[in-house]
Amino acid sequence: MEEKNRNQIKKTGRKPKIDPAVHRYSFNLNDEDSAKFLALFDQSGMKVTAHFITASIFQKTVKTVKIDMDAIEYHAGLTKFFGQFRGIATNYNQIVKLLNANFSDKKASAYLFKLEKETKEMKELLQKVLILTEEFEKKYLNKE
Fold it and tell me: In this structure, are residues 99 and 112 in contact, taking their beta carbons and an 8 Å threshold?
């Protein structure tokens, strides 16, 4: 009876793979090639280098996603700026209505003159922002 128990196969542990990868290959790279390889591997977004190598060898498509954090930060800042600009436009309309409703023509025109001066300065600032945005897009975003 003891012999019978010894001959029984225990079914514990990991199930064997149907097609195990048992063939191993090795290659050496110099410093420059290694740096290029690691850069390509990082751009691929893959987690396992072996999967990246096999995908590269057998011409499988390797998806690369490049995220430019400077462009994202610039876009976020620009979005906040234009949000504030819209808020100023709303306040501008409200101020003009209040000036016309609550002040005499002479006083209202004096305040509107000051407001017009500030508006011209804001327009110049906005033009500078637009020029800087175009330069940024040409230099860093490579828009065609």
Answer: yes
Nearest to 99, CA basis, from 114, 117, 87, 111: 111
Mean pLDDT of the 90-119 span: 86
Measured distance between the N- and C-terminal CA atoms of the chain, rounded to whole angstroms: 81
- Contact between 67 and 43 under an 8 Å Cβ cutoff? The reply is no
Structure tokens at 52: 């990246």
At position 29, the amino acid (one-letter code) is L
Amino acid at 102: N
Burial class (CB in 10 A: 0-12, 13-18, 19+), 102: exposed
SS3 for 66-90 is: CCCHHHHHHHHHHHHHHHHHHHHHH
Calculate the dihedral angle through the C-alpha atoms of 69, 73, 75, 80, rounding to the nearest 10 degrees: 160
Tokens for 74?
A: 């610039």
pTM: 0.44
